[in-house]
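Re: the 260-residue chain
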Amino acid sequence: YWWLNHLVYLLGGDAQIALAIAAFITLFFCFKDTNKEEWFIYSILFFVLIFTWCCSTVRQMISMSLAFYAFKKYNLGERVIPIVAILIASAFHLSSIIYPFLFLFCKFSDMNNVKAVLIYIITLFVTFIAGDWLSTKLVVILYDTAYGTYTETDWFDPVEIGSGFGVFLRYASYLIILLFFPYDKINNGKFILALFTLYVAIDIISIQVTIINRVGRGFIFCWLPCIYYLSIISYKHKYIVLTFVWLVIFVNFLASLNSG
């Protein structure tokens, strides 16, 4: 990322040009190798779920888009391109080195709806019962790392929840997706479900340990294939599920704009 900015500077560009190039890279790899149906759904989800993060966590969103590209290629059975994509992603955000290990874990996890819901319930229970303990242990682990500077900031404070209605809606949508995702009708459906379950678990933990949310952003791309398959494949209560999930997505988006 430093070299990208330095190259722009040498060519007479400014910070806005560098941000525009970063945005193009993110968009390019998120939408590369998508069909027309995917493109339509991905476009909406990108705008409401990812776009705002591209304005702040620029490096991580580039890394995320490359990881998504690696994910797509890995699902197609390719092995060299995903490795190269992850290596490039690591040059933008070092946390990307965890993707291959988590991809392999999700690939062979033999995930199904019941397991996904159990992980969801256990994560909720552990987070709200032992959240303070998790935060304390994480401080010890991260203190001498590059993230040590965050340990004495509000990144390690619990999230301040207002009425709790928005959080309830988001968690309810997670539960419905995990419960109804038609993994058995999709090639590598277990892999996608496992990846989304991982994202959900990270997001739940971030309620008590905010810094974990920085990890979750790297997996935000899993929303795109997950909602895409929920939209095109037939399953029980499909239209009720889709209506509720899309409604929650847009409500949370509008709430995030309102809160700044």
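The chain has a mean pLDDT of 83.
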